[in-house]
């Protein structure tokens, strides 16, 4: 395994560079996935039948909280990668733990929100609108959940093996994933919530 | 130490993303719908590019050309699917 | 649930199938035990990460699925061969045309192409393996899990019966209450994830693992076609993922996406399905174009005419493939503006495709043409595919389509596109690359006999359907009365179907015959080929290239042969190889059970299987296997042996 010392650890081997490149391609596929969910949502948004509409349902408070939490977690995972490149294992792990805690907080609010929606008479089975809304949010939430599991697995590996070209590569790819989830959320925030409240 | 752990680029990116979020909130006031959609589109696209460039370092990889093409194709496909479907079912529906 | 709801009962054909499944499974188990092949099977195949072996497994699976889909097809033709035929009832007929479509497209055409891709692409670009060998094994086992899940549906629970496009509301829980369409949503979902990963893997492989000096514009055409196909895959398959997810939610969790009340929109399914479905057509047909380009250029003994325009036309096709999907439902209710737009984009696709046809013809022009079996398939492809293309342009005209829509004319059209475009291509590629994998050619004389049977019978089977369609016979009708006058042409089509069956039996017999009697090839280059895969001994050693060649131009190997220079006379170094892994296989099994339990909404076992999936993935994440090295002496020895020198 040839290691190229002129590059950051995560780009150090050919395999690592391939993995990062491959993950960018995967995010292209994820863009297509969420675009399809947005398509479904935009087509069905006004078809709320006898159930509540977006304007009836959305409350800006928790949504803003979710947005700020996710933006902050995206910031901290960026800092984790930055520390990693400086070779600061402890700091990197701290930033990563903060990221995961923020992710869990986001998820907590989202689950609370779902209960609130169901309480307001907007279950996933109520209307085409609620089905598409909750599926879009749920898919994003499932990605966050998977991210929490994945991030924890990587954190354990960093603790066990330290920062080598493998763990660095995994952490970097995880950071890409996490930023991507933030990008998706920005579009949900803008074109689901704010547009619904307009 | 603090300066080392919190590089300016990241902090600026973070603050900018918070500011953009707050700007987007103006659509909650009563403005013409077209203006509001325009504001949302601009702030969302800026936010996304911010993440892509400042946090995800899309430009640092040796294949950045392929990555830009990949993202461009993904966005093309996303827009085609969204607007094509709206074209079929909403704007171009036989009524 | 009672046992007679679990197993499909009451049909002698199905009982026969059940008995034969049990017998074949028993025979395999007993055979493996008797010949003590369990260890061999596990070490050499189930755990392999070698792209060549994975390719062979794909092709083997595709051939089995070709048999299954072919039996479905013959049964359909038999049922419609005469007026008021009583061979199958309506329900059984519905199930059979559904499984025929799904299997032929997703479990035959795609894996066959993936098999050829797997075997050939690394060899053509001078790579030791694909970029992510273990992911490649995962892709295969997910595909296989999906295929098996789909196939057991006809004995356990009942097959999907709403057509391969599974339109709502028919495919919804209200009109299809049994589990058939749950199989559809889950089997396709699982194999679709595998397909997406294959797409990713091959883009990275082709973009990053080419031999030094091989720029993009020096790649063989098959490699180009696979690159572009993979790009289409990664942007089209997520749409299918979402569509199938929503289908599952609608059927099993009571959501309202495609229902007829509470705001649901059944037409949205058709829309999403074809947003994926049309690019899917190009996913199966572009690699075929690549295969034909290779074969035509090899056997015309000329370099490919218009290389650059070939690449550009494929890029244009890949872009346009995302812009035409509404032509599948012109009659659904959208306005003239929409239909006009999609008519134009659809007809526009004929332009780059036409460019390719002319390029092949100009490659043949003044060539020293050798009529080998793969070449015959390629030559037959050109005119037959053109008929398919021309009728496609007829269908593309929205106003005229109101006449043809959902008639046998359409059925004839897409068989005229997909059979020459994809099936002939994979058969041609199979004959062409067979010696590379197994070290001997398929017998030419027997291959040509099969070819003539297939080519003539194909036309006898499908040409009558154009006329039946124009006379008003709709697709998917399981019977008709004598007064319709559809009888004679349908009987003719049945005759053709029998001929096709004989053709495929001859093809398989040829594999058997050649294995036993065909002389072994010692040169590694039996066809006097042009691209890098022919520079290696056959069968190819596990590490592929002992030394990675340097590339200076297109068809490097061909010119090296002309100049009498060797591509492999550099110093041999130790070679890094990935280790085998059983985890992809285990993941496939876990996914199979996850899918199976979800089909029947057995949630507790489903959750257990889901946890098994996650744990297997976690085990892979914690795995720190770095592979192993093959030492220089071993490489030198094996190269000498493969090149026929005495060790």
Automatic annotation (TrEMBL), chain A:
Location within or outside the cell: Cell membrane
Pfam families: COX3
GO biological process: aerobic electron transport chain
Keywords recorded for this protein, A-Z: Cell membrane, Membrane, Oxidoreductase, Transmembrane, Transmembrane helix
Primary location recorded for the protein, binned into one broad class: membrane
Keyword Coiled coil: no
Domain of life, per lineage: Bacteria
Ranges for domain Heme-copper oxidase subunit III family profile: 1-197
Membrane-crossing residue ranges in chain numbering: 21-45, 57-81, 93-112, 132-156, 176-194
Membrane topology: Multi-pass membrane protein
MF-aspect GO terms: cytochrome-c oxidase activity; oxidoreductase activity
GO CC terms, sorted: plasma membrane
Family that this chain belongs to: Belongs to the cytochrome c oxidase subunit 3 family.
PANTHER family: CYTOCHROME BO(3) UBIQUINOL OXIDASE SUBUNIT 3, CYTOCHROME C OXIDASE SUBUNIT III
Name this protein carries in UniProt: Cytochrome (Ubi)quinol oxidase subunit III
Organism the protein comes from: Paenibacillus lemnae
UniProtKB/TrEMBL annotation, chain B:
Single GO BP term: ATP synthesis coupled electron transport
Gene Ontology CC: one annotated term: cytochrome o ubiquinol oxidase complex
Location relative to the cell: Cell membrane
Keywords: Cell membrane, Membrane, Oxidoreductase, Transmembrane, Transmembrane helix
Recorded catalytic activity of this chain's protein: 2 a quinol + O2 = 2 a quinone + 2 H2O
Membrane topology of the entry: Multi-pass membrane protein
Function: Catalyzes quinol oxidation with the concomitant reduction of oxygen to water.
Name of the protein described by the UniProt record: Quinol oxidase subunit 4
Natural source organism: Paenibacillus lemnae
Lineage, highest ranks first: Bacteria, Bacillati, Bacillota, Bacilli, Bacillales
Name of the encoding gene: qoxD
Automatic annotation (TrEMBL), chain C:
Names of the cofactor(s): Cu cation; ferriheme a
Catalytic reaction annotation: 2 a quinol + O2 = 2 a quinone + 2 H2O; 4 Fe(II)-[cytochrome c] + O2 + 8 H(+)(in) = 4 Fe(III)-[cytochrome c] + 2 H2O + 4 H(+)(out)
One GO-annotated biological process of the protein: oxidative phosphorylation
InterPro entries: Cyt_c_oxase-like_su1_dom (IPR023616), Cyt_c_oxase-like_su1_sf (IPR036927), Cyt_C_Oxase_1 (IPR000883), Cyt_c_Oxase_su1_BS (IPR023615), QoxB (IPR014233)
Sorted UniProt keywords: Cell membrane, Copper, Electron transport, Heme, Hydrogen ion transport, Ion transport, Iron, Membrane, Metal-binding, Oxidoreductase, Respiratory chain, Translocase, Transmembrane, Transmembrane helix, Transport
Cellular component terms (Gene Ontology): plasma membrane; respiratory chain complex
Pathway(s) it belongs to: Energy metabolism; oxidative phosphorylation
Subcellular location: Cell membrane
GO MF entry, a single one: oxidoreductase activity, acting on diphenols and related substances as donors, oxygen as acceptor
Catalytic EC class: oxidoreductase
Cofactor mode of binding and number, as noted: Binds a copper B center.
Any matching Pfam family: COX1
Ranges of residues in domain Cytochrome oxidase subunit I profile: 36-552
Magnesium keyword on record: no
Enzyme Commission (EC) number: 1.10.3.-
Transmembrane feature ranges: 12-35, 56-76, 96-123, 135-156, 183-204, 224-249, 269-292, 304-328, 340-362, 374-398, 410-430, 450-471, 491-512, 606-622
Protease as UniProt keyword: no
Membrane topology: Multi-pass membrane protein
Gene3D superfamilies: 1.10.287.70, Cytochrome c oxidase-like, subunit I domain
Cross-referenced PROSITE patterns: COX1, COX1_CUB
Family assignment from sequence similarity: Belongs to the heme-copper respiratory oxidase family.
Role of this protein: Catalyzes quinol oxidation with the concomitant reduction of oxygen to water.
Name of this chain's protein: Quinol oxidase subunit 1
Species lineage: Bacteria, Bacillati, Bacillota, Bacilli, Bacillales
Encoding gene per record: qoxB
